Amino acid sequence: MADGTEQLSRVEEERVAIWAEADTLKKEKQALEGQVNEAGQENLQLKKETDELRASLAAQKKELEDLQAGLAAQKEEMEARFATQKKEMEEEYQRQADKMYFFSYRCCMKKHEIMHDIPSFPSDEEDAAPRGPSS
Predict the structure, then answer these.
(1) What residue ranges carry the coiled-coil annotation (predicted)?
(2) Is the residue at 127 inside a domain?
(3) pLDDT digits 0-9 by tens, 60-74
(4) What is the count of structural domains for the chain?
């Protein structure tokens, strides 16, 4: 009977050790499940942040495209205004050059006592009126 008691005692010790190991494994399992849950929540949070960043990026891209379109329109408008101003300035310059030419022409006529734009040549006859180049 001593043999049976020893075996029973060993079996009881093994059973206690198995239960202790089972408890340890359950605790490890719970800890791992907690880590898996945390990782899952973190994954969901990261997905949410990624979606928000993508939405923000899309909005910024749209805003950038709108700004570029606005700048392109402003550039075209400014180029058109510049071309108009350039043409006006060229016309004004030509008008001033023409005025200056005619002013110089009149000053020259006045300086040389020319009254009319018709050239006159001296005649042998004193009473003859100047008629022009082909008389």
Answers:
(1) 22-95
(2) no
(3) 999 999 999 999 999
(4) 1
